[in-house]
Amino acid sequence: MARLHEPYDKFYGGFRWQVPAEFNFGVDVVDRIAREADGPALIAVDVNGGERRYAYSDIARLSDGLAAALRRKGVKKGDFVLVMLPRIPEWQISIVALLKLGAIPIPCIEMLTAKDVDYRVRNSGARAAICRADHAAKFDGLFDVLDVRISVGTASGWDDFAETVAQAPDGFAAAVVAAEDPAIMYYTSGSTGNPKGVLHASRALYSWWVSAAYWLDLQPGDVIWCTADTGWSKAGTSILFGPWARGACSLFYDGPFEPGERLRLLERYNVNVYCAPATELLRVAEQHVASFDLSALRQTVSAGEAVSPVIAERWLAATGMPISEAYGQTESLMIVLNYPGETVKPGSMGRPAPGSRVEVIDKMGNIMPDREEGDIALLTPHPQLMLGYWREPDRTERCFVDGPEGRWYVTGDRGARDANGYIWYRGRLDDIINSAGYRIGPTEVENALLDHPDVAECAAIGKPDALRGEIVKAFVVLRAGREGEAELVKNLQEHCKRLTAPYKYPREIAFVESLPKTLTGKIRRSELRDRESMAGQTT
To answer: What's the number of CA atoms in the CB half-sphere (13 Å) around residue 384?
Structure first.
C-alpha cells in the first residue's frame, strides 16, 4: 500500500481517508486503468451527430504524446496553463497531459472575453494556453507572456493540437507529484473585485472519488452524462476526476441545450447517471418523457443551485425518479450528499459526505442546535479543501474560524440541520448571484455597466426566478440628461455582453434616482435584495 499522507489519516463517521503521499491523476488513475482494466472512458458527440469514442488506453497514449510535446516546448512542473476548450475530447486529453507533467491547468469556459482571458493569464502568470482556433484572437495581446500556444484547428501563431500530439517524442516519463503540490486552479466570481483563483492540491483530485462513489454511485462500465461547462469545478467532480477514478465512462455533448435532444441522447447512449442543474431538469421534465426509453437511467443528481421542491416534484412525476442533490463549492467541492438508496428530502442538500464533518456553527465556532440557522462549515484539515486563494492570503485566512472542535472552514452559506442530520440551505453571506448554476460576481456586472457613458452609478443583485433560481437585476442611476427608456435597457444589456461573459448580463434593469449606501459610501446590495423580496411578496 502507498504511504499515506498523515494529516488526513483519521475517521469521520466511520470513514477513513487514505490519501497517498504522492498522487498523479494521469498516472495513478488513467494509466493504471488503461493497463489493468481497460474499457470505455469517453463518448464525445457533436451537434451534427458526429461521434468519437475513447478507451482509457487511448487517453493514456494521447495524453502522453501531448505531455511530451509540451515538455519539449518548455512547459514544466508548476507552470500554469490556461485550457479554454468546450466539450470536446481535446479538453480531457489536455487536462490529463498537464497533470502528468505536474503543470497546473486553469480550465476556462469559452464565453470569456479577451479582457477576462487577459486577467486570468496575467494574474496566474500562465506560460501556455490551449484553445480552439475560433477563440485564439482573445489571446492576441498576450503573446509576450505565453511562450506556448496550442490550438485545436489552425490559427496564426499557434501550434496545431493534432500535429503537436502526432509529432511528440517517444519515451515520456511523468512527474512525481506530492499530495500537497498544486494541481489545478479554477477562477470563481467573488462578491467584490476580480474573480479569485481557487488553487487545489493533488490530494483534492484524489479525494473526489468519494462523491463519485457515494453520490453519483458510479461503477466501472457505467455511463454518466454531466452537462456542466468545462470551466467549472463541477466538470472536474462529475465529468473527469470523479467518474474516471471509478472506471466509468463520460458522455460529452458539444451542442446547445435543447430539452428534447437531452432525452434522445439519454436514450441513445443508455446513460446510467444524469447530472444537470435544476433549471435544466425542469425544462427536460416538461417534454413528453414517457416516449423515450430511459430504462438504463438509475440516478439523477444536481448541484450548483438549490433544487426547489417544485422542480423535484415535476422530475419525479415525469421520470419516477427523485433528484439527489449535493452541496459543494469551488473551494471544497462536494461535502454534503444525498446517498443512493436513502430517502431524499426535497429541499434538503443531504447529509455530510463520508470523511466530511459538516456542521452549522455560530460566529465563535460553536455547533448550533438542530433547526437553528447558522454558518455552514467544514472541519479541517480536509483533503478536498483548497490550498487557498491565489495570491490572496488574507482573503484565505478570513474563511476560517477556530472553535472548541477545531478549525472550521466557513463556506459563507447559511443553513440549518434537522434532527436526522440533513442540512437545509437558508441563503448566503455574500452577494454572489447564482443563476442557472453560474456564479456571477455583482462587481463584474457593475464594472461593465459603469463603462457605458450614460451610467453614473449602478448595483447588481440576484433576483429570485422560478426557472433560473436567480437572474441578474441591475439598478442604474443615469447621468444628468438621460432618460431610462426601453431602448436604453437593450443598449445596456448588449454593452454588458460585449465586455464580459454573456451569461452575466442583467436580464432586468431598473432606473433609480439613487442607491442605498452605508455611511462610508458602500452600496447596500442587501437592502436592494430586501426591497426586491418585498416587491415579490406583494405581486
So the answer is: 29
- Asked if residues 227 and 191 have their Cβ atoms less than 8 Å apart, the reply is no
Specify whether the CB–CB gap between 239 and 226 falls below 8 A. yes
Is 289 part of any domain? Answer: yes
Q: Check which CATH number belongs to the domain holding 212 and give it.
A: 3.40.50.980
User: For residues 449 and 534, which has the higher predicted lDDT (pLDDT)?
Assistant: 449
Same domain, 55 and 72: yes
As given in the structure block, the three cell numbers for residue 453 are 457613458
Which three cell numbers mark 311? 422542480
- Alpha-carbon dihedral sign for residues 456, 459, 464, 465: positive
What is the DSSP-derived secondary structure letter of residue 138? G
Nearest to 99, CA basis, from 19, 29, 21: 29
Say how far apart CA 360 and CA 129 lie, in whole Å: 41
Is the separation of the CB atoms in 272 and 298 below 8 Å? yes
Per-residue confidence (pLDDT) for residue 118, from 0 to 100 = 97
Condensed to tens digits (0 to 9), the pLDDT of residues 329-351 reads 999 999 999 999 888 888 789 99
Q: Is 186 found in the same domain as 55?
A: yes
Beta bridge mates, 410: 377
> Quick one: which H or E segment has residue 252?
strand 249-254
Quick: pLDDT tens for 467-485. Answer: 888 999 999 999 888 989 9
CA separation (Å) from 247 to 222, 242, 275, 326? 8, 9, 17, 21
| 181 and 135 within one domain | yes
Question: Can you read off the three cell numbers belonging to residue 176?
Answer: 512525481
Verify that 253 and 322 share a domain, yes or no. yes
State whether 392 and 506 are in the same domain: no
Match 451537434 to its residue by C-alpha cell: 47
- Both 462 and 395 in one domain: the answer is no
- Return the CATH number at 513: 3.30.300.30
**pLDDT, position 387:** 98
Which domain covers residue 166, as residue numbers?
A: 18-34+49-201
Q: Rounded distance, CA 303 to CA 281, Å?
A: 11
Segment 47-106, tens digit of pLDDT: 999 999 999 999 999 999 999 999 999 999 999 999 999 999 999 999 999 999 999 999
Per-residue pLDDT of 369-390, as tens digits, reads 999 989 999 999 999 999 999 9
Q: What DSSP character marks residue 202?
A: H
Which pLDDT score is estimated for 85? Answer: 98
At 272-316, the pLDDT tens digits run: 999 998 878 988 998 999 999 999 999 999 987 777 777 888 899
- Which pLDDT tens digit goes with each residue over 16-55? 899 999 999 999 999 999 999 999 999 999 999 999 999 9
Q: Is residue 44 part of a domain?
A: no
Instruction: Give Cα 459 to chain centroid, integer Å.
Output: 25
Same structural domain for residues 321 and 374?
Answer: no
Amino acid of residue 317: A
* Ramachandran sector of residue 78 (left: φ over 0; alpha: ψ -120 to 50; beta: rest): left
CATH number at residue 164: 3.40.50.12780
Q: Number of folded domains in the chain?
A: 4
